[in-house]
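Handoff note, outgoing to incoming analyst
You'll be picking up this chain. Sequence as last confirmed:
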Amino acid sequence: MNIGLVLQSSNSFWELMQYSAPNKLEYCLKWKLKFYMDYCNKDDVNDKSSYERQTVILDAFKRCDWVWFMGADTIIMNQTIDVRQYIDDNYDFIIAHDVNGLNNDSCFYKNTPDTVEFINKTMHHLSHQPNDWFAQTDARRDMPNFKIKIVPQKLFNCYLYDSDPAYAGYPRNLPGDYKDGDFVLHFPAMCNMHRLELFKQYLPKVIK
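Most recent structure output, in case you need it:
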């Protein structure tokens, strides 16, 4: 099974890549994953970069059976875990559910005709709706038989719900709260200055 990890950033998140990219490359070298890094020359992460995400995934399909898409504000914290354990060939798309709904900054696309159609429909909707996840939701509506697996956030998209001020308004003890030993840590809904501080704090704790 050939798996490619796609890491994408716009201008808005590019300063994070000095920390995010080496972490992903190290993991890919360890587990023999293909690594794709995309720079989108656009300040608005929800505009051109959302469209470009789809084109990079389609390009990765030329060499990959599955694509693992990750945002720039993520860290693979436990590199002893083989991502293949989360791959389920019975599905076309695997995504985690956080407290606000589905989050596609750490998710998996299977290289199938249905997935290619789903991505193309997403790109069509992005021409009218610049937000990537809303466009994917519209594409899913057009494809009721597209096989999506929704999994617990804990598997590969944890947040610092209980320990970071950015989530002070959320309930405590949410299932997706990051604990030592978890696979992936994600820093959504905060400024880049704070993200940079967290990268510096957590990268030394990565389990290798």
